[in-house]
């Protein structure tokens, strides 16, 4: 006999294939539970387990009450960050692992942003970079704005995979608990202003080079605090940070 988890996984795959064939988009209702039970010929418990699997993946949102049910959703970078953090913890990944990955991806991301950004996105980057410099003496605010800047560049790149991966990497960097001095924060903020300017000008090469220089600048940690780059990524630390972020977003 096939166990319920395996049945539920197969139902979940079928639901998502059908959603793609129907051209369902974010916010669309997948259909009534009774319709799925009749069409698929499955038990109610297996169907509900399938939807719980999809909810855990961020692919659907299960709403209660009138007009509720399974609604198409978009997986969030926080979910990817949690999964990647677990992968890195098991494999012994460190902050160096995360920064090397960012140094590989983010220059290309900045180049794409320079080619594809909208005027509104360019303006948001310019304003964020300005606020970043002003917040250089306020560490918590600086780190929040720094993370937002990278999220904005990822969004402006127009690449869905990058827009999910880079915020996830930023969250993992933040969870390590490493600190930057005011002088380093000022240098990073000035670099960010240059990146924002290059993106606004549509200068893909300049945006790429400035982003590369900014990220590789973190290698200064080798001389300032060599051990910080070898700090391990722990899933619990990342997940705790993400949970706090989600609660703050709900409360706000």
From TrEMBL:
Recorded GO MF terms: DNA binding; DNA-binding transcription factor activity
UniProt keyword list: DNA-binding, Transcription, Transcription regulation
Highest taxon listed in the record's lineage: Bacteria
Residue ranges of domain HTH gntR-type in the record: 5-75
Alphabetical list of PANTHER family matching this protein: GLUCONATE OPERON TRANSCRIPTIONAL REPRESSOR, TRANSCRIPTIONAL REGULATOR, GNTR FAMILY
The protein, known as: FadR family transcriptional regulator
Species for this entry: Actinomadura bangladeshensis
């Amino acid at each position: 006999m096939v166990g319920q988890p395996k049945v539920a996984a197969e139902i979940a795959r079928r639901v998502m294939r059908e959603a793609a064939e129907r051209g369902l988009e974010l916010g669309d209702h997948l259909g009534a539970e009774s319709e799925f039970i009749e069409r698929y010929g499955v038990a109610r418990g297996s169907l509900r387990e399938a939807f719980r699997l999809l909810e855990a993946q961020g692919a659907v949102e299960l709403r209660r009450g009138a007009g509720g049910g399974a609604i198409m959703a978009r997986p969030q970078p926080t979910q990817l960050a949690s999964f990647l953090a677990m992968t890195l913890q098991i494999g012994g990944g460190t902050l160096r692992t995360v920064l090397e990955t960012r140094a590989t991806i983010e220059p290309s991301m900045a180049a794409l942003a320079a080619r594809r950004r909208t005027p509104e996105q360019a303006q948001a980057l310019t304003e964020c970079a300005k606020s970043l410099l002003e917040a250089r003496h306020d560490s918590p605010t600086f780190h929040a704005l720094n993370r937002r800047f990278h999220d904005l560049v990822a969004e402006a790149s127009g690449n869905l995979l990058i827009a999910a991966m880079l915020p996830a990497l930023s969250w993992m960097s933040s969870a390590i608990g490493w600190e930057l001095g005011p002088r380093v924060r000022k240098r990073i903020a000035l670099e960010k202003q240059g990146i924002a300017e290059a993106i606004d000008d549509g200068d893909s090469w300049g945006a790429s080079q400035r982003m590369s220089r900014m990220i590789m600048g973190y290698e200064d940690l080798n001389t300032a605090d060599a051990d910080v780059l070898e700090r391990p990524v722990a899933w619990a630390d990342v997940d705790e940070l993400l949970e706090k972020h989600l609660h703050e977003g709900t409360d706000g």
